[in-house]
Amino acid sequence: MKAQVKWVDGFRFVGETQSGHSVVMDASQQHGGNNLGPSPMEMILQGVGGCSSIDVVSTLQKSRQDVLSCHVDIEAERADTVPAVFTKIHLHFVVKGRDLKENHVSRAVALSAEKYCSASIMLGKAGVEITHSFEVQAI
């Protein structure tokens, strides 16, 4: 896997993936940027959320659960000192569907956290406290 990040101007950068996708990243105005894109640290959170969400939806679909939507709300805390690494990340999944079984959702979240989500497992091994919760909403 490869990627490239190019400086545009100020504190704005464009990241390009090996698969040809691009994203603009920028620092917030308080850090000298223009807030024209997510910060690199926000991208890390989105990556964790995306990685884990793919696992959860895939596992539920394989369990023949009728998932109609899934989103994850992510909250994180960072160290007060430089480097301001993440110290805690909490992922809260909201899964909507027809006749969803709570035990299947619980299992899908646990499998992502413990076995499949490379992003969150990597951060956990680096000392970030990562927690998960979920709710099931019937439609």
Automatic annotation (TrEMBL):
| Domain of life of the organism encoding this protein | Bacteria
| InterPro entries, per the entry | KH_dom-like_a/b, OsmC/Ohr_fam, OsmC/Ohrsf
- Please provide an example of a Pfam family that matches this protein in its UniProt record: OsmC
NCBIfam families (alphabetical): PRK10738.1 (NF008009)
Query: What is this protein's name?
Result: OsmC family protein
Q: What organism is recorded for this protein?
A: Kistimonas scapharcae
